[in-house]
# Entry
Amino acid sequence: MSASKFQQQSMLTLRGSLLSLAILTFVSLTYLSLNSLHSSFSSSAQSSPAAISASEKQIIQPLRETEASAGQEESGNAKEDEEAGRSDGDDEITDLYHYPEVFKLNYAAMEENFKVYIYPDGDPKTFYQTPRKLTGKYASEGYFFQNIRESKFRTEDPDQAHLFFIPISCHKMRGKGTSYENMTIIVQNYLDGLIAKYPYWNRTLGADHFFVTCHDVGVRATEGVPFLVKNAIRAVCSPSYDVGFIPHKDVALPQILQPFALPAGGNDAENRTTLGFWAGHRNSRIRVILARVWENDTELDISNNRISRATGHLVYQKRFYKTKFCICPGGSQVNSARITDSIHYGCVPVILSNYYDLPFNDIIDWNKFAVVLKERDVYQLKQILKDIPHEKFLELNKNVAKVQKHFQWNSPPVKYDAFHMVMYDLWLRRHVIRY
# Structure
C-alpha cells in the first residue's frame, strides 16, 4: 500500500472516530439537560405557581444563610409573638401581595438581618437626628426619625450596616423659617462634612445611603444637591416622576395624618350609600376639572372647597364612612393624605393621578383594594364607578380593611405597620457591593 493511501485511510478513520465521539457527547449532554430541566420544572411547580423575578431571587438569598438558626429559634419566636399579643390573623399573608410567600420569607429575612447605621453628626436641637413633631402632614417624616431609633434595625457598627441613614430633617428647617435656598446650602454642607469625615459614601458614591422627607419641602430643599438626588435612595411623600422620582431606586413614603380623628372603618359596605366623595382646594389642574365637571352632580358628592368646621363636628371625616369610593386627585404634589384617610375610614380610594408611584406598589397589589385611574378618566368618572359590579365593590371594601395596618405609624413600631413596610422597601434596595 502506498504511503499516500495509508495516510488517507488514517485520516478517514480519525474523522470517523471524532464524529462518533461528537455524536455521543451531544446525546449525553442532551439527556443531562432534559433531566435537569425536568427537575427544575418539578421544583418550581412545588414551590410556587408564579414566576419569581431575578431581583426577588437575589433578595431571598439571605434566607439560605439563616435557615439553620431560624429552625432552632422558631419555638422561641412563637412564644415571643404570643406574649406580644399577636394573633394568627396579624401574620396572615393573602393574595393582596404580588408574591405572598416571597414577601413572607423576605420579610422574615429582613427582620433577621437588616441593619442601618445612623450618622451621629448634627445637633438634634437644630435640623438633625430627631423629629420636629409626629402630627400634621409631615408626620410620616417624624415617625420614621423616631421609629428607626426604637427599632432593632439600628446598628452602632457601620461595618455591619446594609444602608446608611442621613438624619437631616427638612421639616425642622421649615419650622425654623429657613428659606429653600438656605435649606439647600445646609443639606450640601452637611453631606460634604459626612463625605469628608467617613469613608462610607465614597464606597458606592452614596448608593447605599438614604434620607427621608415628606411633602414638597424635602424635594425643593434637595433638588439643588444633584449628586444626592441622583445617587442616594430618597424616601419621599412626593413620588412623582416629574420631580425626579426614580422608581427602581427611590421609595414612596405614605403621607399619613395622625392621629386619626375617628376609628377605622371597613367591612361595612351596607352603610355606604354615597357613590363618590371629594372635598378640597382646587390647587391642581385635575382638581379644577374634577370640581367643574362634577360639583353639581346628584350621585357624586364633590365640594369645591374644604368642608368648614362650622358645618358640624368632624363632618369631613364622617363622610368617608358613608361613601363607597373616595376620589383622590393629586394636589400641589401628586401624593395626598386623602389616600390614607380613605383607607383608614374603609372607603375605597380612587387614585386620579398620572406618573405616580403608589406607596408599597412593588409589594402590594393596589388593584385589589383601590381603583387606579388616569387623569383623562375624570370625564367618565361616574360611569366608571357605576360600572363596577357590586360583588367587586364588596371585595374592594373588604380588602381595604386588610391593608390598613400598612398605612399606620406606631411608636414603638409594630410588625407590618408603615415603618416596617418602608424598611422592607429599603431592604429590597440595599446594596451589598462595597468598593
Q: What stands out?
A: Residues 1-8, 26-90 have pLDDT under 50 and may be disordered. The two ends are 70 Å apart (CA to CA). The longest helix spans residues 3-47. The chain is about 45% helix and 10% strand.
